[in-house]
Amino acid sequence: MAGAVGGIVGAGGAVWAAMVAVGARREAVRSAAAAEDSADSARGSLDVMRADAARAVERVDVGWSRLRDKRRPGFVILRNIGSTTAYDVAVVLTINDERIALAPGDIPPGGLVEHDATDIYRAESQAASAAMARASAAGVFYAAATKFRVSARITWQSELGTPDVRVIAPGDRD
Questions:
Q1: Domains of the chain: which residue ranges?
Q2: Average pLDDT rounded to a whole number, residues 130-147
Q3: Which of 4, 53, 116, 144 has the greatest number of CB atoms lying within 10 Å of its CB?
Q4: What is the pLDDT of residue 103?
């Protein structure tokens, strides 16, 4: 009987040892995964630091101006007056309180963003003409001007992804 008890205790000890070994193996796998995650995080941090360092010395020369072409009234024209390309350009125009979103993409130096707003311009011009006609019919001289207020919010990024924004208010132009 003592031999049987010793065999049972030995078998129990072997089962216990196997369970400890399996637990240790699981812990080793978890530890290896954590070490790999930590290394990936360190590589990611290093990549971010390198990108930040490159952006710090990046030369970006992007500027914007609004042009007016008397031959095309109602056209909104924005020009990149800088010497570098503006990437992933997005423009939100506000014309007489109407918002218009444009996504022209990359704009090189000297490149243009154009929007045809002649329908808005024409409606405002007709309203001004009608106001002058009503005033004239009443015997009053009235010189109405076409209301065409344009503002632009331009966002873009540099080649390395540094974002920037410029707001052109009504009245700003080249």
A1: 1-57, 64-168
A2: 83
A3: 144
A4: 96
Query: Which of 102, 121, 101, 104 shows the shortest CA–CA distance to 112?
Result: 104
Q: Once rounded to an integer, what is the mean pLDDT over residues 78-95? A: 97
Amino acid identity, position 87: Y
DSSP code, position 82: S
Backbone angles phi, psi at 171, to 5 degrees: 95, -25
Q: Classify residue 23 by burial, with Cβ atoms within 10 Å: 0-12, 13-18, 19+.
A: exposed
Question: Kind and range of the H or E element at 88?
Answer: strand 86-95
User: Which residues touch 110 (CB under 8 Å, ≥6 apart)?
Assistant: 79, 80, 81
Q: In the structure, what pLDDT confidence band is assigned to residue 80 with cuts at 50, 70 and 90?
A: very high
What pTM, to 2 d.p., does this model score? 0.63
Architecture of domain 64-168: Sandwich (2.60)
